[in-house]
Structure formats: structure tokens, C-alpha cells
Design a protein that fits this description.
The protein is an all-alpha fold. The chain contains 9 helices and no strands. The radius of gyration is 20 Å and the shape is elongated.
């Protein structure tokens, strides 16, 4: 037997933090953070309560880890992508947002927004953590792209903060919709095609940002 092939027990141990994070996110969204007990997370993950506390000292630490894993790490990846990108600001904004959306919306990670919006008012320390780890880095990242476009003459001189909010807030609300009304089976009249939405949304914002001479038509742009 190869010594480089970890045993099932070893693989199971290495997978436990991720299993605990997945279980925590599911339960926090289903029941709410306050109503979920640590024991329930352990049971959902298939481990003992003692094992949970080997990895996370408290339920609050577990929620912080859920936010970091699902959102903060994605923003850090986006920052690295921005630093290495040499194309136009429009192309960069489209790539960053569409790739981010593909990962977030089409995975359980999108539920973090619903969780934060509905819970953090009662947990100010979590709110502060979310602002520091998610809101501020994301705003800095996207704001930097908008500023780059303005400096290059590609974008109109606009209020950068307002432009970032215009880009991000609709995406957050689509995620909230998916994990609230959309999770209740309310019928097709309330359904949204999130993947179609992101393409049109980004194009609409770019149409407003770009100087007329710099606008680049896409497959979604009308003739």
C-alpha cells in the first residue's frame, strides 16, 4: 500500500473542519444562528460535540469561520486576480463579478448573506467582523476597479461609493431571495434566473459607467 495515500480515517479527520462548516451553514440558515445549538451542528456533521470544540471554540467562532471560508477567501482571490489583470476596467469588472457570482450564487455560500442580514443585529461582534472581513475588502476591491476605469478615461467621473453599491446590493438581494422566498417553492412567478441576471446587471451598470466611445458590445447588448 502506498505511503502517500492517506487512510480513510486520516482523510476523514482532515475533512472535518469543512464538514462542520457545511453543517453549520445549513443549520444557521434553516433555523437561525441564535436558535441553532452547537450539538446540532456536531450531529449534522456526524461528529461529537467535543470534536466540534477541538476545531472551533464557540458557536460564534464557527460563524466567523463560515463567513471567512465562503466570502472572505473569495474576495482575497479576486484581489489577486485584479492585481494580475492587464485588460480594460470593463473587462476586469465583468470577470470579477461574473466569476464571483458563479461561485457564490450557485453554491450554498450565497446563503451567508441571508444569514448575516437576519442575524447580525443581535450579535454586534459578528456584525463588526463581517464589515471588516467582507464589506470593506469587497468595497475596496470593486472601488479600485471603478477608480482605475475613471483614471484611464474609460469610465465617466462618478461617485465611486455609489457605483460600488449599485453593483453589489442587487446581487446580495438576489441571493437573499433565493434562500428565502425562492426556498419556499412559491411558484415560477417568483423565480429568478440568477445566471441570466448577473450578465444583464453588469452590462446595465457598465452602460452607465462607460464613456460612450469606450463601450464594448456583448452578446447581451441590443443592436
Amino acid at each position: 500500500m502506498s505511503t502517500t495515500d492517506p487512510s480513510p480515517r486520516r482523510r476523514r479527520k482532515e475533512a472535518r473542519p469543512q464538514e462542520l462548516l457545511d453543517a453549520a451553514l445549513e443549520l444557521f440558515v434553516e433555523k437561525g444562528f441564535a436558535a441553532t445549538r452547537a450539538e446540532e451542528v456536531a450531529v449534522r456533521a456526524g461528529v461529537s460535540k467535543g470534536t466540534l470544540y477541538l476545531y472551533f471554540q464557540s458557536k460564534e467562532d464557527l460563524l466567523r469561520a463560515v463567513i471567512t471560508h465562503n466570502l472572505s477567501e473569495r474576495i482575497a482571490e479576486g484581489a489577486a486576480q485584479v492585481a494580475a489583470f492587464s485588460g480594460s476596467a470593463s473587462e476586469l469588472l465583468r470577470v470579477v463579478l461574473c466569476e464571483w457570482w458563479e461561485h457564490i450564487y450557485n453554491s450554498p455560500a450565497g446563503a451567508v448573506f441571508k444569514l448575516v442580514i437576519t442575524e447580525v443585529r443581535n450579535f454586534p461582534e459578528i456584525s463588526e467582523f463581517y464589515i471588516h472581513e467582507v464589506v470593506e475588502p469587497a468595497h475596496h476591491l470593486l472601488g479600485g476597479i471603478v477608480q482605475r476605469g475613471i483614471a484611464q478615461g474609460e469610465f465617466r467621473p462618478v461617485d465611486v461609493d455609489v457605483a460600488v453599491h449599485s453593483l453589489v446590493l442587487p446581487l446580495i438581494m438576489i441571493c437573499v431571495h433565493k434562500h428565502s422566498i425562492g426556498a419556499c417553492g412559491m411558484g415560477e412567478q417568483h423565480s429568478l434566473d440568477g445566471n441570466a441576471f448577473i450578465r444583464q446587471h453588469v452590462q446595465l451598470v457598465l452602460d452607465g459607467l462607460c464613456q460612450p466611445a469606450t463601450r464594448q458590445p456583448t452578446d447581451d447588448t441590443p443592436p
